[in-house]
Write a structure and sequence with these properties.
With about 400 residues, the protein is an alpha+beta fold. The chain has three domains: about 120 residues, Butyryl-Coa Dehydrogenase, subunit A, domain 1, CATH 1.10.540; about 110 residues, Butyryl-CoA Dehydrogenase, subunit A, domain 2 (Beta Barrel), CATH 2.40.110.10; about 150 residues, Butyryl-CoA Dehydrogenase, subunit A, domain 3. Helices cover about 50% and strands about 15% of the residues. It contains twelve helices and seven strands. Strand 2 and strand 3 form a beta hairpin. The radius of gyration is 21 Å and the shape is globular. The two termini are about 35 Å apart.
Length: about 400
């Protein structure tokens, strides 16, 4: 059964992270927004040591196996990510550790692979992992992936191009990390031929070719990667190399990764939304506007109703996140709830941040406050790791029982 009370162990970690958010993130948030390709090493190094000291590894759910009591890895992550994103979403994406790349290893790798690839995140130096799926000609349509992996003896040879890889530069250039590249071992098999491959930093034939200039989350790097006759060991494939055209195990591995991480993206979105709503109420309070809770809506002013409605949106979205991460911890199928949480949080954060800028008028639109930055940071949550439209399709297919072809 879901317990809505925050466990003491998580509460203590969250208190520490609030201090980080207030003292290490917010004061330099504007600077790193304006200097997009500078790396916040002070934050990265501090968080790496802090995570090791807390025994939280590198924001890895599988660290929970070392703890006593019920599994709470994803629940712990949700609370931590929400708080860090309350500080600064771009900074949060610079938190050292496995990220989406490690989630892919955990979802599709063998125990030996998890030990081999993930142990680096608890070592002395910080490291990052990224995941590369999107290509210049395809994003949401993963069946159209053209990056190929061809076996050559005891190696795989990868060729292709990946774009919009979050933390790709940190994973491949700045630290001793890796990127999980989704490629096809049989183009004729469609989704059944998809497989994830671990490409480690320093591998010849893998290069970062472009750093994106972005609307938001500018403290985090987003890159393009080219694989040209990139050779990796045979056992760097996650999952079976055998292709069964009647199954979609490779594709299901990708979706299992997203089932685990979409609620965490949702938590990040709601951290931005909470920061925005708190500042909005503070600014309104300075102008003598107070929210009179408990009165009938007919007796409230329009602004009071709007603020209360925003709070309802925020809290209801958070409940979906809690359910999704609880199900992940309990190893229950959570595809529908994970996608629901992603849709809802993407909507909520864009609506709250945009409305806050509108309500504050010129000062909301100016750079004097962080409101306009949070509005820019917010939008990515409705795009990456499955757009709002794609997640709506996932939910609709699950609820209505339609196949992909029937509802596309």
């Amino acid at each position: 059964m879901i317990d809505f009370e925050m466990p003491d162990s998580i509460r203590k970690q969250r208190t520490m992270l609030q201090s980080v958010a207030e003292n290490m993130m917010r004061p330099v948030s504007r600077y790193f927004d304006e200097h997009e390709h500078e790396i916040p090493w002070d934050y990265i190094n501090f968080m790496h040591e802090a995570m090791r000291a807390m025994g939280a590894g590198s924001l890895r759910p599988d660290e929970e196996k070392k703890r006593k009591g019920p599994r709470m890895g994803y629940q712990r992550l949700a609370f931590m990510i929400e708080m860090l994103s309350w500080g600064d979403a771009g900074f949060y994406l610079c938190t050292p550790g496995g990220g989406l790349g490690a989630a892919a290893v955990e979802a599709t790798g063998t125990p030996e692979q998890k030990e081999r690839f993930l142990k680096r995140f608890t070592q002395e130096k910080p490291a990052f992992a990224a995941m590369a799926m999107t290509e210049p000609h395809c994003g949401s349509d993963t069946a159209a992936i053209r990056t190929t992996a061809v076996r050559d003896g005891d190696e795989w040879v990868l060729n292709g191009e990946k774009i919009f890889v979050t933390a790709g530069h940190k994973a491949l250039v700045d630290t001793d990390g890796f990127v999980v590249v989704w490629a096809t071992i049989d183009p004729s098999a469609g989704r059944a031929g998809m497989r994830p491959f671990v490409v480690e930093a320093g591998t010849p034939g893998c290069s970062v070719t472009k750093l994106e200039d972005k609307l938001g989350i500018r403290a985090s790097d987003t890159v393009s990667i080219v694989l040209q006759d990139c050779r990796i060991p045979f056992d760097n494939i996650l999952g079976s190399p055998e292709v069964e055209k009647k199954t979609t195990k490779g594709f299901k591995g990708a979706m299992a990764t997203f089932d685990a991480t979409r609620p965490l993206v949702s938590a990040s979105a709601l951290g931005i939304a909470r920061a925005t709503l708190e500042l909005l109420k503070e600014l309104l309070g300075q102008q003598g506007v107070t929210i009179r809770y408990g009165l009938p809506r007919s007796l409230l002013t329009n602004i009071e109703r709007e603020i209360i409605d925003m709070e309802v949106m925020l809290r209801s979205a958070w409940l979906l996140v809690l359910k999704a991460v609880w199900m992940a911890d309990e190893r229950k199928p959570n595809t529908t709830i994970a996608s629901m949480s992603k849709v809802r949080s993407g909507d909520v954060v864009t609506k709250i941040t945009q409305r806050a800028v509108e309500l504050m008028g010129p000062i909301g639109y100016s750079r004097d406050l962080l409101l306009e930055k949070w509005m820019r940071d917010a939008k990515i949550n409705d795009i990456f790791e499955g757009t709002g439209q794609i997640n709506r399709l996932v939910v609709a297919r699950r609820i209505l029982g339609y196949t992909r072809r029937e509802l596309s």
